[in-house]
Design goal:
Number of helices: 12
Number of strands: 10
GO biological process, one term: fatty acid metabolic process
Order of helices and strands: EHEHHEHEHEHEEHEHHHHHEE
Largest sheet: 8 strands, mixed
GO molecular function: 3-hydroxybutyryl-CoA dehydrogenase activity; NAD+ binding
Protein name: 3-hydroxybutyryl-CoA dehydrogenase
Shape: globular
CATH superfamily of the largest domain: NAD(P)-binding Rossmann-like Domain
Keywords: NAD, Oxidoreductase
Structural class: alpha/beta
EC number: 1.1.1.157
């Protein structure tokens, strides 16, 4: 099956990688040639690491790289695609614009999906001429390692589209859970609720980031603590989600000041080298001041 991924950032190239590795032909599109090339390079680097660790066969890597191509042209990206996945930043107006442009360019029987982590998919669908062919596909970072995909059902999504979405998730060796369109869906709502309380504990001096995370990793068997996970996801992403959930669900999702200060200072987590922790070469090397 041919798939188009619109947006070549962390999530976009991650989705492209897992789809190509699973045997799908993938066209990865962004607005700048350098962004596209960086994304293709990142896919190759990730697959090379998989080979080095014995998790990816060399021939699987080579076949995946052959199946993944990049472009800045929307029409060529969606040409022949059975599925088009929007993976641009978490901005309502931007997503609606990209989705509308994609719908106009793609085949009439193709399915259109958004990788939104918190925006209402029913609202995104309302910008489309044929919203029945639209669904939310919420992947998790890093896409190649995380098994879950939330299939988010808009009010307009029809049964055929829902069945197609679940079949696609199965085809890339992920596990789908089906959730109704509600603020934060299931995962984001639960995840940020834990994360925001962990941030408040640090802000109030209850415990250090490392001790808070150790409490959840060692006491509750979480593979990663909520603050380290916030660094991996991106503090700016978590702030956007919290602000949206506060508007929809109330003050319990008010972003803590410690999060706002770090975002305003440009300390966004792993991707900038500092968040609640200090990062080097993708690894935690200390706790941030």
């Amino acid at each position: 099956m041919r798939i188009a991924v619109l947006g070549a950032g962390t999530m976009g190239h991650g989705i492209a990688q897992v789809a190509a590795t699973a045997g799908h032909d993938v066209s990865l599109r962004d607005v700048d040639d350098n962004i596209v090339q960086d994304a293709l390079d990142a896919i190759e680097t990730n697959l090379d690491k998989g080979v080095d660790r014995g998790k990816v066969a060399p021939e699987t890597r080579d076949a995946a790289l052959d199946r993944a191509t990049g472009t800045t042209d929307l029409e060529s990206a969606v040409d022949g695609a059975r599925l088009v996945v929007e993976a641009v930043p978490e901005d309502r107006d931007l997503k609606r614009d990209v989705l509308s442009d994609a719908e106009a360019a793609m085949a009439g029987d193709a399915v259109l999906a958004s990788n939104t982590s918190s925006l209402p998919v029913t609202d995104l669908a309302a910008a489309l001429d044929d919203p029945a062919r639209f669904v939310g596909l919420h992947f998790f970072n890093p896409v190649y390692a995380m098994e879950l995909v939330e299939v988010v059902v808009a009010e307009q999504t029809d049964e055929e589209t829902l069945a197609f979405a679940r079949e696609f998730v199965d085809s890339i060796d992920k596990t789908a859970i089906e959730v109704a369109d509600s603020p934060g869906f299931a995962s984001s709502r639960l995840g940020v609720a834990l994360g925001v309380e962990a941030m408040r504990m640090v802000q109030e001096g209850v415990a250090s980031p490392r001790d808070v995370d150790d409490a959840m990793e060692l006491g509750y068997n979480h593979p990663m603590g909520p603050l380290e996970l916030t660094d991996v996801v991106g503090l700016d992403v978590r702030l956007d989600i919290l602000e949206h959930l506060r508007e929809e669900l109330g003050e319990r999702f008010r972003p803590p000041q410690v999060l706002k200060r770090k975002v305003n200072a440009g300390n966004l987590g792993k991707k900038t080298g500092e968040g609640f922790y200090v990062w080097q070469d993708g690894e935690v090397v200390g706790v941030a001041e």
